[in-house]
């Protein structure tokens, strides 16, 4: 019966291309959308992941950076530094604002760094300085290239002009980027002296970040202390919550397209071979075997579509970054499992109507010439 399914599938090349192509495009829609949002989630937490901190300390109740505000007095920095197991503490200032150059406006996390910051500075510099001085800013290279910004140009941040003295790598995403100015400039612009947004904490090598985070919360009042991984996870959840409805709708559209293409293809293929199935029934073939033939045909078509869709998505993931785009596609195992499950459901549902045709098929029609 598997051999019959193969023959039915590959006998009509045009029908095969239409069915596999339609399914692969539908599955490509689902997989590429997941890959885009997975890539965005990873990019959004790039600064956190590369900050060098083991623990992020914020104002009580604040568990992420995106669309959040945190304020900590200098006394908290001193208290956190005194907690057993803490090796280093680097305070940073943070808000979301635009980096403006002529008519270009790019949304960015604006990070205020202390002089000689031990953590939280750009993790990779393509050109220029690695730490901003007074009146200076470090921005992402891809943002600079898109806007035509070069070292020595001036951009506007928070209503003030800053000279671009460094270009960083890997800190731009589809939704925003990261720009670094000095903490003194940040305080002058905002008027919040001796207060910080977050504390980046490095623990002693022999200590567990989880244990030290619990210790900080128990010994320092009105703060939330999370490991870098937990803080990044919360940041990703914010992005995921914002995009859930869009992803769900687009996945549903992809599923319905794939189901419609496969159902029509398998149905017409089965209908074209009604006499053949009727003859098999007349010769004693069990209905179960014929059902399995239709299911196998649908399954093979969907699997071919799955691998073609996956191949296209992986190719896009390799090509897009080379085009200078901030869009990054990342195929996760969770996406592959979901796509595999969707493929199996499409194969099963698309075979239901053809199976009903076989169920009601009268073997005598073969001998009546109908």
Class of secondary structure makeup: alpha+beta
Tally of extended strands?
A: 12
Q: Which regions are unreliable across 5 or more consecutive residues at pLDDT < 50?
A: none
* Helix/strand order: HHHEEHEEEEHEEEHEEHEHHHHHH
In helices, the fraction of residues equals: 40-55%
Number of helices: 13
Structure description:
The chain has 370 residues and is α+β, with helices and mostly antiparallel strands. It has two domains: 2-44 and 243-368, no CATH class; 61-221, no CATH class. The chain is built from 13 helices and twelve strands. It has helices at residues 2-11, 13-44, 46-49, 74-81, 141-147, 183-190, 209-219, 228-272, 274-282, 287-319, 333-350, 352-359, 365-368; strands at residues 55-59, 72-73, 86-101, 104-113, 125-128, 136-140, 154-157, 160-168, 177-182, 195-196, 198-203, 223-227. Strands 1, 3, 4, 5, 6, 7, 8, 9, 11 and 12 form a ten-stranded mixed sheet that branches.
């Amino acid at each position: 019966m598997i051999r019959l399914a193969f023959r039915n599938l590959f006998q009509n090349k045009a029908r095969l291309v239409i069915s596999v192509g339609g399914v692969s495009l539908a599955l490509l829609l689902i997989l590429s959308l997941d890959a885009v949002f997975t890539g965005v989630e990873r990019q959004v937490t790039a600064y956190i992941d590369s900050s060098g901190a083991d623990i992020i300390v914020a104002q009580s109740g604040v568990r992420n950076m995106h669309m959040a505000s945190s304020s900590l007095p200098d006394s908290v920095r001193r208290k956190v530094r005194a907690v057993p197991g803490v090796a280093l503490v680097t305070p940073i200032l943070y808000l979301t604002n635009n980096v403006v150059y002529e008519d270009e406006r790019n949304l960015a996390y604006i990070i205020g760094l202390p002089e000689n910051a031990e953590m939280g500075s750009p993790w990779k510099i393509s050109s220029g300085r690695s730490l901003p001085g007074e009146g200076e800013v470090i921005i992402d290279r891809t943002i600079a290239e898109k806007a035509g910004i070069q070292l020595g140009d001036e951009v506007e941040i928070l209503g003030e002009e800053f000279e671009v003295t460094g270009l960083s790598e890997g800190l731009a995403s589809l939704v925003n980027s990261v720009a670094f100015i000095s903490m003194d400039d940040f305080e002058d612009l905002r008027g919040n002296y001796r207060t910080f947004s977050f504390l980046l904490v490095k623990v002693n090598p022999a200590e567990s970040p989880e244990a030290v985070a619990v210790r900080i919360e128990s010994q320092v009042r009105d703060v939330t202390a999370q490991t870098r991984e937990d803080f990044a996870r919360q940041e990703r959840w914010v992005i995921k919550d914002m995009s859930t409805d869009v992803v769900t709708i687009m996945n549903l559209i992809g599923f319905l397209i794939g189901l419609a293409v496969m159902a029509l293809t398998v149905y017409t293929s089965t209908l074209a071979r009604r006499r053949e199935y009727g003859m098999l029934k007349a010769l004693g073939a069990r209905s179960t075997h014929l059902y399995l033939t239709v299911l196998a045909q649908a399954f093979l078509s969907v699997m071919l579509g799955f691998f073609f869709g996956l191949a296209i998505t992986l190719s896009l993931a390799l090509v897009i970054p080379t085009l200078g785009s901030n869009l990054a596609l990342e195929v996760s195992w969770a996406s592959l499992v979901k796509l595999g499950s969707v493929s199996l459901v499409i194969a099963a549902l698309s075979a239901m109507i053809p199976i009903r045709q076989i169920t009601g098929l009268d073997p005598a029609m073969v001998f009546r010439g109908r």
